[in-house]
Write a structure and sequence with these properties.
This protein has helices at residues 10-21, 33-40, 51-61, 97-106, 126-137, 155-160, 176-188, 190-194, 204-235, 239-247, 268-281, 289-312, 340-350, 363-369, 379-383, 396-399, 403-407, 424-429, and strands at 2-6, 25-29, 64-67, 78-81, 115-118, 142-145, 165-168, 199-202, 321-325, 354-358, 374-375, 388-391, 414-417, 433-436. It has a six-stranded parallel sheet with strand order 3-2-1-4-5-6, with helices on both faces. The chain has a six-stranded parallel sheet with strand order 11-10-9-12-13-14. The protein has 18 helices and 14 strands. By secondary structure, it is an alpha/beta fold. The chain folds into three domains: 2-202, NAD(P)-binding Rossmann-like Domain (Rossmann fold, 3-Layer(aba) Sandwich), CATH 3.40.50.720; 212-295, Orthogonal Bundle (N-(1-d-carboxylethyl)-l-norvaline Dehydrogenase, domain 2); 300-436, 3-Layer(aba) Sandwich (Rossmann fold), CATH 3.40.50.720. The protein is globular, with a radius of gyration of 23 Å. The chain binds uridine-5'-diphosphate-xylopyranose.
Length: 440
């Protein structure tokens, strides 16, 4: 099929390359010329394992091109909207300016019979509004909502082998228009469907809600275990053993029960806030009141981390040297949006500590966004002369640190494991004071 992908960020760049991998003819379009140039050279403008290889492979087939020209979308049978929907400044609601701009730019190029497929996470009701604009511009074009569930770090795998496909189609499943939209999307996803990927065909609003409901559930699961961590801290219990034990219950499951510094990133925090804002507009804010607690528990973990560091440093962090391992919001990503690690680093610096941050992939992004923080190229350099080391993003290389060798570079052997990934016995045996969130 001929496909356009509008917006080539974390989602769109991976989607474009993956669609070409599935055998389609793809044009990726973005307003950022530097991003387009880099993608066209086969260089991923951000860190995503497997993406550079996939880009090079698909570019070499000639089935994938990148451009800033929206007119290049004119030929496509399916247009994927992959632009960002960040949180509005000073508000909980989502900022839809990029979605609106992408649709406005696309409308004059819509061909009869084409399908606009929204992938961005949007407030419920957006698809219906955009569908009217599409119908007005080209009565024989259609809109579907096809939310994306990819995780950064696994984006290529999640796109090529998704765990489910959700289509929100015009007039709902089984209608004439719905069946036409479904047939087009089935052709796009013929590869994953052949692997028996489950498919849910539904109406616009359900499809929009699926995405925010999924992210709200995941955020709730993380905050649930972090609330248990608070209980563990008050009682001397161990939250990692608690998570293992409740996780054996198949109804609960162990995934997303890792207690620690909590969630960040470009999705979970802003999606639960936008969901609360939308529920308020719909007059059902009480239904999502629990998400306020989910958000509050999550933010409290960051404050607790600073307090714990102060405790470990003997009551004050003023003039103390602090090594922060990790800047990305999670490992295997260079994304620093709402990064818990950088939030903690900045709080500690503001409170008078000398903070050195390091990260294997996110340093350039961190330096750009947080120029007032100081950075070191490696864990060893960050920890040289440190009074306390904070492990805040669980990159494999930090999990693999040898406590004996690492103990040689610091001034004081104190470590706080913000992600509960180190072996406390091994670190304590090497002479370290080991502390963690939710563990004795
Ligand atoms: C998330 C959803 O998983 C994905 O389906 C959606 O499409 C976009 O949002 P992502 O933001 O890439 O994906 O990250 P994810 O792996 O979900 O992690 C989110 C945050 O939760 C990270 O900061 C991570 O460190 C934290 N987390 C995750 C925990 O604190 N504990 C856990 O057990 C799991």
């Amino acid at each position: 099929m001929r496909i356009s992908v509008i917006g080539c960020g974390y989602l769109g760049a991976v989607h474009a390359a993956s669609m070409a991998r599935l055998g389609h003819q793809v044009v990726g379009i973005d307003t950022d010329a530097a991003k387009v140039d880099s993608l066209a050279r086969g260089e991923a403008p951000f860190y995503e394992p497997g993406l550079p290889e996939l880009l090079r492979e698909t570019l070499s087939t000639g089935r994938l091109i990148f451009t800033t020209e929206i007119a290049a979308a004119g030929d496509a049978q399916v247009h994927f909207l992959c632009v960002g929907t960040p949180q509005k400044r000073g508000e909980y609601a989502a900022d839809l300016r990029y979605v609106d701009a992408a649709v406005d730019a696309l409308l004059p190029h819509l061909a009869p019979g084409s399908l606009v497929a929204g992938k961005s996470t949007v407030p419920v009701g957006t698809a219906r509004r955009l569908a009217a604009l599409v119908a007005e511009a080209e009565p024989d074009a259609m809109l579907a909502w096809n939310p994306e569930f990819l995780r950064e770090g696994y984006a290529v795998k999640d796109t090529l082998h998704p765990d489910r496909l959700v289509y929100g189609v015009p007039d709902g499943a089984g209608s004439d228009a719905g069946l036409r939209a479904e047939a087009l999307l089935d052709e796009v996803y013929a590869g994953p469907l052949a692997e028996h990927t489950p498919k849910v065909v539904t109406d616009y609003t359900t499809a929009e809600l699926v995405k925010v409901a999924a992210n709200s559930f995941l955020a709730t699961k993380i905050s649930f275990i972090n609330a248990m961590a608070e209980l563990c801290e008050a009682t001397g219990a161990d939250v990692t053993q608690l998570a293992d034990a409740i996780g054996h219950d198949a109804r609960i499951g162990r995934k997303f029960l890792n207690a620690g510094l909590g969630f960040g990133g470009g999705c979970l925090p802003k999606d639960i806030r936008a969901f609360m804002a939308r529920a308020g507009e719909l007059g059902v804010d009480q239904a999502l009141a629990f998400l306020r607690q989910v958000d509050a528990i999550n933010m409290r973990r960051r404050v607790r981390m600073v307090d714990l560091a102060r405790e470990v440093c003997g009551g004050s962090i003023v003039d103390r040297n602090v090594a922060v391992l990790g800047a990305a919001f999670k490992p295997d990503s260079d994304d620093i949006r709402d990064s818990p690690a950088l939030n903690v680093a900045a709080q500690m610096q503001l409170q008078g500590a000398h903070v050195l941050v390091t990260d294997p992939a996110a340093m350039a992004n961190a330096e750009k966004a947080w120029p007032d923080l100081s950075y070191a190229p490696t864990a060893q350099a960050a920890a040289a002369g440190a009074d306390v080391v904070l492990l805040l993003t669980e990159w494999q290389e930090y999990r693999d640190l040898d406590p004996t060798a690492f103990g040689q570079v610091v001034a004081g052997k104190r470590i706080i494991d913000g992600r509960n990934v180190l072996d406390p016995a091994a670190w304590r045996a090497a002479g370290w004071t080991y502390r963690a969130l939710g563990r004795p």
